[in-house]
Task: structure prediction
Amino acid sequence: MFIIVVLLFERVAKAAKEDLSNYYILMENKMKKLIALFAVSAVASTSAVAGIALSGTSSVSYDDNGAGASTTSYDADISIVGTTGGTTVTIGMDVDGGGTAATNRPAITSATMATTIGPVTVSADMFDEISEGSDSGAGGQATEGSKAQDTGVTISLDAPIGDATVGVDNSGNVTISGSWSGIAMSHTSKSAGDTTTASGSIAGMDVSVTNKAGATTWSLGTTVSGVGLTLASSQKVTATFGLAGNTMVVTSVPARASAASVAGVAGSATLGTDDITVKASYATVAISRSLTSGATLAATYNTFDDSLTLKASVAF
Result:
């Protein structure tokens, strides 16, 4: 009798072990399927996720204008960037508007879209901005460009060739760019005049050179004893350094020589420039500090008109 009971117990135990093993196998298969399902769902969700980024700036200023009457001003701008996959749409807005009461409302200042299709990049400028500059004596654009000039679609193809990248767009402009020995170089050939740029760090100095249609400009930047120095081909010199928790920027601006205006025709290839008036050299000293409120307070003194400007600004 005892032997029979033992045999029955062994058989039950064996059956239970087999059932438990089959249960584990079944559960393992189900878990594998669930994991695969979650993985596919995650991939599908990731590819469909779109993001919207909102950023902007705002400021208020007080200017004593030297011997003139003091003034206050304000400004607020917002940028909305929508991204999905490799496509980006960017919209800029001037929130404070400006002008008369009838036009003092938020206004769009830019609208662009960029996407890639393999090696092809497609970008669209969809906003016809006011490109005519104000006649302030600095030689701004004299006439307004047409909608066709201020908007449009650019299609470019980039192909790597050795260490260089060759690009061509729908206007026929050809660009060759690359980096050699730490120096980034680019050359664009176009009907309006070739443009060649080179930039890099040489012996601790940041050097940038641009030649556009035969005219060359350059800038040098370096740091000496904690002071950041920049020098431009226009003879403009800037020094930036820390001062008791503040940031001080001293800028020397050279004198401006006069130049006659260049006539232009609205909507044509020749938009012209306003005249440039004589302006004596001057210097500015700006001291700024970040506040615990999140804003930045800056005070700028200008030797040209002996004016002091106080500005509180915030960026988000």
Observations:
- The first strand starts at residue 50 and ends at 63.
